[in-house]
Amino acid sequence: MKPKCPKCNSEEFVTKPNRYDILKLGDKKFDVVKSEFTEDKYKMYCRDCGSEIDEKSSMKKNKITLKT
Fold this sequence. Notes:
Number of strands: 5
Radius of gyration: 14 Å
Strand content: 35-45%
């Protein structure tokens, strides 16, 4: 079972800001080759509802935990 956002059950999460993707054109679409962070600090959010993820707590508990 994939970890899900406790607020909206989404399985997708995004970082903000300070990240960029290196892309290559594949079969009629761009494919992500590699993602790099431009700074050490970043925040994680649920892609659907925008809730901020508590990364340290989530890793410790092995489940998605929201910041309060």
